[in-house]
């Protein structure tokens, strides 16, 4: 069978050896390519399978680490802002109680109900249904998040991390875990393990297919 990737292989041969793993690592940091995709492309292009697998896993892990730290910082700021907003709301509510003490019980009840609704609206962010409508079909990413959430409940972070590439890219998975409150060290550990396992498995499969086809 003719090799359809001969042009790609000839191009990679012209790239200095020291830059070839770097190209694979950069590709691995792109969502939906990931370490396994970059490693497979590198092997198809003629890069040593071990080098391609290591570079792919390293680039993917570095990308995940960046997402985890960025997502963790955003979450901390969001929690701090929510706490400050909640505190300000409570202070305003207490300040408004004194002038309302002489009001009728019905007026007080209506004011309390209104305040409770306002606080709930602050505490509950808008959902996808609020933005797109309740009858809109869930997107592929939303389905992936739902599946990942079920796996997280059933198998915990370790099991969900290993199964995650079947639902979402590792970087989106890492962001999901961080937003769920999982400690960033735990996210990085299990995402790294999952990346190494998936990248190694795909690299072995790619090498076997190429050997079988004689490319």
Spell out the key features of this protein.
mainly alpha; 9 helices; 79% helix; 215 residues; single chain
Question: Can you put this structure into words, describing what you see?
Answer:
With 215 residues, the protein is mainly α. Helix content is 79%, strand content 0%. It contains 9 helices and no strands. It has helices at 6-14, 20-28, 34-44, 49-100, 105-123, 128-132, 140-163, 170-179, 184-213. The longest helix has 52 residues, at 49-100. Residues 103-126 have low confidence and may be disordered.
Topology of this structure?
Elements: H1 6-14, H2 20-28, H3 34-44, H4 49-100, H5 105-123, H6 128-132, H7 140-163, H8 170-179, H9 184-213
Quick take:
The protein has 215 residues and is mainly α.
- Unreliable spans: 103-126
Distance from first to last alpha carbon: 8 Å
Given the C-alpha coordinates, what overall shape results?
Answer: elongated
What is the mean predicted local confidence, pLDDT?
A: 80
Fraction of residues in β-strands: under 5%
């Amino acid at each position: 069978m003719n090799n359809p990737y001969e042009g790609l292989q000839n191009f990679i041969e012209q790239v200095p050896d020291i830059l070839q793993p770097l190209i694979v690592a950069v590709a691995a940091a792109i969502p939906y390519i990931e370490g396994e995709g970059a490693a497979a492309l590198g092997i198809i292009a003629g890069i040593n399978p071990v080098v391609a697998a290591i570079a792919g896993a390293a680039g993917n892990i570095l990308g995940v680490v960046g997402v985890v730290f960025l997502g963790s910082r955003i979450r901390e700021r969001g929690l701090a802002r929510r706490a400050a907003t909640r505190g300000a709301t409570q202070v305003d509510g207490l300040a408004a109680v004194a002038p309302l003490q002489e009001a009728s019980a019905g007026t007080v009840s209506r004011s309390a109900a209104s305040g409770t609704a306002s606080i709930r609206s602050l505490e509950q962010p808008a959902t996808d249904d609020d933005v797109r409508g309740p009858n809109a079909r869930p997107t592929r990413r939303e389905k992936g998040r739902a599946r990942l959430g079920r796996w997280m409940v059933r198998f915990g972070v370790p099991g969900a991390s290993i199964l995650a590439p079947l639902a979402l890219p590792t970087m989106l998975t890492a962001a999901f875990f961080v937003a769920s409150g999982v400690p960033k060290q735990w996210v990085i550990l299990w995402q790294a393990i999952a990346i190494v396992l998936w990248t190694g498995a795909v690299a072995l499969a790619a090498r076997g297919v190429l050997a079988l086809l004689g490319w």
